[in-house]
Amino acid sequence: MEDVRKIVVIVEDVQVARTALRWALENILRLGDFIVLLHVYPRSRSRNKKKSRTLRLKGFQLALSFRDICDSFPNTKIEIVVTEGDGEGGRIGAIIREIGASTLVLGLHDNSFLYK
Length: 116
Hints:
Layout lengths: L5 E5 L4 H13 L6 E9 L6 H22 L6 E9 L4 H10 L3 E3 L11
Parallel strand pairs: 1-2, 1-4, 2-3
């Protein structure tokens, strides 16, 4: 049996992110692999806990909508990670290293952190 892989898919509220998830499910997912749905919401400048909680909740709701896409693929193992971070991808890199992910999948768009 081959090693189980963790495939991180960036969750954003843009169509290209959903398309990237579908592509990953159809093209790289193997039986036993985990799809890690990762949403990084922006760090609140004001340190307002209510605003931070609202952003976290919206992130979970968005990730759950991505999980619904995964449900059409039988035996898909899914983890959801919602965390606060910067807009430059530093937190994403830290999470990937922390969980030992083998693959990162994201949809490129004009506001992507990769262009910053």
